[in-house]
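Notes from hallway chat w/ T.B., transcribed later so I don't forget. T.B. wanted the structure written out for a chain they're using in a teaching module, and asked if we could keep both sequence and C-alpha cells in one place. Agreed to drop them here.
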Amino acid sequence: MNRIVNWLSINDNRVFFVVNQLWRCKVLDALLPRITHLGGAIFSLSLLFFLMIIFTNDIRYWAIDAFISLSLGFVSVQIIKKLSCRKRPYLTLPNVNICQNPLKDYSFPSGHTTAAFSIAVVFALHSPLLALSVIPLALLVGISRMYVGLHYPTDCIIGALLGTISAILAVYFIYV
C-alpha cells in the first residue's frame, strides 16, 4: 500500500508542476484564471437561478436537476475535505505559481471541479449535443485549478468523479 501511495504522490506532484509551471504562457495566463471561476459558487448558483427564472421549458427542469446535483456535490466535498485535511499545493510545494487571494481551506477534493462537473454532466445527460461544449469547459475548470496553484491532479480527478456521480444521482432521482 505504501508503494501505491508513494507512486501517487510522486506523479501527482509531477503532473501538478507540468500544468502549474511548464504550461505557463500569456494565453493561458489570461484565460485559465478566468475559467476557474466557472466552478465557483457565485457563477454556478447565478447561472442556475438565471436559467430557472428565464426559461419555462425543459431547460428550467435541467437547471433544477443541476441545482440538486450541485447541492449533492457540495455536501460530499465538504465532508471529504473535513476528513482528509489535505493542504493545498502552494502550502506544501516549493515555487508554486498561485493566483491572487488563494483559498486557505483544504485541497482534497476540488470543489470548483466538482461543481463544474455536477452542472455540466446534468446538461450533457439531458442533451448529448451540449456535452460537446459543457464537458470540455468542466475539464478546463479542473485544469485551471492546478494552473492557479490551488489543487493537485488527484483533487481534480476526484472532484470530477464526485460531480459526475452527483449529476447521475440527481437526474435519476428526479425522473424515477
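Follow-up for T.B.: Residues 88 and 107 are 5 Å apart (CA to CA). Might be a good example for the class.
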